[in-house]
Specification:
This protein is mainly beta and 153 residues long. It contains 1 helix and 12 strands; from the N terminus they run H-E-E-E-E-E-E-E-E-E-E-E-E. The protein folds into 2 domains: 3-45, no CATH class; 64-152, OB fold (Dihydrolipoamide Acetyltransferase, E2P). The chain has one helix at 3-14; strands at residues 20-25, 28-35, 38-45, 64-67, 76-79, 84-87, 103-104, 109-115, 118-123, 128-133, 140-141, 146-152. The termini are far apart.
């Protein structure tokens, strides 16, 4: 798939109500997704890359922290830094990294977000107590989707 075909796909997404499309041609896969008005093309190659293509800037591998209430600093929401799949533990047989009531320290692993076959560990940004786990295991995630509510220690 060449760059002109990718540009045609981007224009198609921009002119329609479709928010994401994935096209596989040979060993190359191109996924184009739109959040709001922006279009972010990405290219994934299975074993051997067929060509270089525009790749969206990767989000940082650390969670975003947002105050739950503007005036109160009692709870923070940890949001997904990327689109992917949420995993509560490192393998299906293991216990979850955290659950409601778990005390965490800065740097503790909260979960794993799989994106494009890469496992990204999401770590706690501060000490605190996990109040709520907002996502189920193996659930697909959107960028910025709330994952946990944590009360700082």
């Amino acid at each position: 798939m060449d760059i002109s075909e990718i540009r045609k796909l981007i224009r198609l997404i921009q002119q329609s109500d479709v928010t994401e499309i994935e096209v596989t041609e040979g060993e190359s896969t191109v996924r184009i997704s739109r959040q709001g008005a922006a279009v972010a093309p990405t290219m994934v190659a299975a074993a051997q890359p067929m060509m270089a293509a525009p790749v969206a800037a990767d989000a940082p591998a650390t969670p975003s922290l947002v105050k739950a209430a503007p005036e109160e600093c009692t709870e923070h929401v940890v949001k997904s830094p990327m689109v992917g799949t949420f995993y509560a533990s490192s393998s299906p047989d293991d216990d979850p990294f955290v659950s409601s009531g778990t005390t965490v320290k800065k740097g503790d692993v909260l979960c794993i977000v799989e994106a494009m076959k890469l496992m990204n560990e999401i770590e706690a940004e501060y000490d605190g107590v996990v109040e709520k786990v907002l996502v189920k295991n193996a659930e697909p995630l959107e960028y910025g989707q709330p994952l946990f509510v944590i009360t700082p220690a």
